[in-house]
Design a protein that fits this description.
By secondary structure, this protein is an alpha+beta fold. The chain has five helices and ten strands, in the order ααββαββββαββαββ.
Length: 314
């Protein structure tokens, strides 16, 4: 009996083994791990995402380039319509600075006392946009643009001289400027474009050499014209204290001009006299040392004798 019990144990185990094997064979097999297989589907996705990024970047660059071309074409057109010719403008005998002599006048084309400036067709400009108030011109540079004055200081940030939507915007006077002679600071705002257009050339005035090559500009209005004697260039924070429009008197104007001179990388041959208005050109700066920098170029306005009103061009 003991032998039979001993012999029956293996038999019982033998009888249950097939059932266990059948149950085990009915379970799904675990997939075999293969090194790197799970990473393979991600590589095409990365390539596709990179290709899309390149396409989007190229599209943005193309749109930006098209915008620059469109803006340049618009301003080239207005120059051809209203500022294609030049006329000699004779200077008045204005009062010199009490402390420093005036800088020498730009080179004369005719060897006399005449200054060649654009002959502005104000009738054409008025028909295009009555907001056009002046024309700013710097000899021997690409800076030659109409200057508008709107009801606020925002509209012409993204609209050009013809009121068309344009990322280049327009050069525009502060909306509160009166444009009268006296202790006033005429401020012209404009974008610093990467292609050098608009106020894109102003950062070059941070160097002595560029200032010496272009020490004067001209601001032409319908009823009078000015020579702009540049006297300071500086980078400031976008704080209202650097953008005053009116001064209580000539002494206050001279204090403001003195602060600008103290911050300028170069010193001019002439300084404001306290009687003439100032012209300040303001644009964005790439100065990394400030979170909201502005580049300011200051000039003294000197009234000229003749008025370059111009006749309608053919």
């Amino acid at each position: 009996m003991r032998a039979n019990r001993a012999s029956s144990a293996p038999a019982a185990a033998g009888r249950t083994a097939p059932a266990a094997q059948a149950k085990a064979s009915s379970l799904p097999e675990a997939p075999q791990a293969s090194p790197g297989r799970s990473r393979l589907p991600l590589m095409p996705l990365f390539r596709l995402a990179f290709a899309l990024l390149l396409c989007l970047s190229a599209l943005m660059l193309l749109r930006m380039a098209a915008g620059y071309r469109s803006s340049r074409a618009a301003y080239e057109s207005i120059r051809a319509q209203a500022a294609a010719q030049t006329v000699p403008v004779t200077e008045t005998a204005d009062l010199p600075s009490p402390a420093l002599p005036r800088p020498s006048a730009p080179a004369r084309q005719d060897g006399g006392d005449a200054v060649p400036t654009p002959a502005i067709d104000w009738q054409t400009l008025s028909r295009i946009n009555p907001d056009i108030a002046a024309w700013l011109y710097c000899p021997d540079t690409a800076l030659s643009y109409p200057v508008v004055q709107g009801r606020d200081n925002r509209y012409y940030l993204d609209h050009n001289f013809s009121r068309s939507s344009d990322p280049a915007g327009a050069l525009f006077f502060d909306c509160q400027n009166t444009l009268r002679d006296g202790p006033e600071n005429w401020i012209v705002y404009g974008h610093r474009r990467n292609d050098g257009s608009m106020f894109g050339s102003l950062p070059a005035y941070a160097t002595q050499a560029y200032f010496e090559a272009h020490p004067v500009m001209f601001l032409l209005l319908p009823d009078r014209s000015y020579r702009v004697e540049l006297f300071a260039c500086r980078t400031v924070h976008a704080d209202q204290k650097y953008f005053p429009l009116f001064f209580l008197n000539g002494a206050a104007l001279l204090r403001y001009a003195g602060e600008a001179l103290s911050m300028s990388p170069w010193q001019p041959d002439a300084a404001p006299d306290g009687a003439s208005p100032l012209l300040t050109l303001a644009t964005c700066s790439a100065d990394a040392g400030d979170d909201d920098p502005r580049l300011l170029l200051h000039g003294r306005l000197v009234l000229l004798n003749a008025v370059a009103t111009g006749a309608p061009l053919p």
